[in-house]
Each structure stands twice: as C-alpha cells, then as structure tokens.
Amino acid sequence: MFTALKPLILASASPRRKQFLRHLGLDFTCQPADIDESPLSGERAADFARRLAAEKAAAVAASRRESWVIGADTVVTLDSEIIGKPADAGHALEILRALRGRTHQVITGLALICQREGCSEIVAETSEVTFADFPDAVLAAYIRTGESFDKAGAYGIQSGGAFLVQSMRGSCSNVIGLPLSACVALLLRRGVIAPLS
C-alpha cells in the first residue's frame, strides 16, 4: 500500500504498533527506547503521553540522525487519573471494576523526529471508550487469559477484551496503541512515505 522513501524506525517493542506498520506495507526497523516512563508530579495525561512519545523518539534519533523515528505512548485515564498496567491479577480486577459501566479516555502521544532534517512533531489523539457492566466473575475469567498484564487499563480491544467495550468514540487504532490515520498523514506530509502506484 505504501513505501518508505526514507529510513524509518519504530521506537517501540509493541507487537501491535509493529503490526500496524507492516499492514501498511512499510519497510522499517524496530529499536525500542529505554526511558523512565514515570509521570511527573501533577502532569496531565495528554502531556504525559506526548512527553513519553517524544522522549522515546528522541532517545533513538540521537544515535540515528538520518532516520525518521516514530515514538508512541498510550495512556488510559478515568476521571483525569492515569491508569497504568496492572501489577498482578488482583490489581487488574480493581482496574476493570473501576472501568466497567463507565466511559474512560485513551490518549496516545505520537512523535516523529529526524535529527538531520530538524523535524520534531508531537501530537496526541484521544478516544473515548465505554465499558459494559459485566460482573466480577466475567472480569476474572478475562484476566485469567493473561491479556491484561502488558496493557494500560488491563484490557486489549484488539483481541479478547473487545467484548468489554460497549461503545467507542474516536480512532480504534488509537486505543490499540497508534493513531494510524494521524501517523500516515504525518509521514505523507513529511515525504517519509508514499503510496504505491
């Protein structure tokens, strides 16, 4: 569908983000960034997502100056409180209980950095997700699948956790971890990729 015209790096180990870029037909390399992912005191969720996306991309771009580096970070929030990845099954159940029957926000920060070209673009996209009101036994059965443990908000909309979602407003790919429409538009505008003819 697309071809990369310039060297492209994804500063993430996320299999979901990698799959999105592969589905677009892009040739890219993966180089996860090692940064401190703790929120700053009083930091708003959107600012946190943008900052981490930028720091991930910048960490990789520092040693790969000619490459165009994509950084992304996804944050789940409820009542303006950042909800991270669960520490264990009990914590996952607490998170899913808090989300059930309510609407939460999923914010993904997206950064595109190229040192040689002097490019540093950072955006954030928000989607709203409303959960159905399932009982504890159903939530516990989902947690036992193991899907909860590497995901902010303790669920994955792209797999078994989709049944938890009653409705959604905004980009589905954003909830999964990469606002794909915004990412493609940014890469096209900067001449990093082009559609195959």
Give the helix/strand layout.
Layout: E1 2-4, E2 8-10, H1 15-23, E3 29-30, H2 45-61, E4 68-78, E5 81-83, H3 89-99, E6 103-114, E7 119-131, H4 136-143, E8 165-169, H5 172-176, H6 180-189, E9 193-195
Parallel strand pairs: 2-3, 2-4
Antiparallel strand pairs: 1-9, 4-5, 4-6, 6-7, 7-8
Describe the structure.
It is a single chain. The chain is α+β, with helices and mostly antiparallel strands. It has a single domain (2-195), classed as Maf protein (Alpha-Beta Complex). It has 6 helices and 9 strands. It has helices at residues 15-23, 45-61, 89-99, 136-143, 172-176, 180-189; strands at 2-4, 8-10, 29-30, 68-78, 81-83, 103-114, 119-131, 165-169, 193-195. The longest helix has 17 residues, at 45-61.
User: Helix proportion of residues, in percent?
Assistant: 25-40%
Q: Helix tally?
A: 6
Give the tally of structural domains.
1
**Biggest sheet overview:** 7 strands, mixed
Keywords:
alpha+beta; Maf protein; two-stranded antiparallel sheet
Give a nutshell description of this structure.
With 197 residues, this protein is α+β, with helices and mostly antiparallel strands.
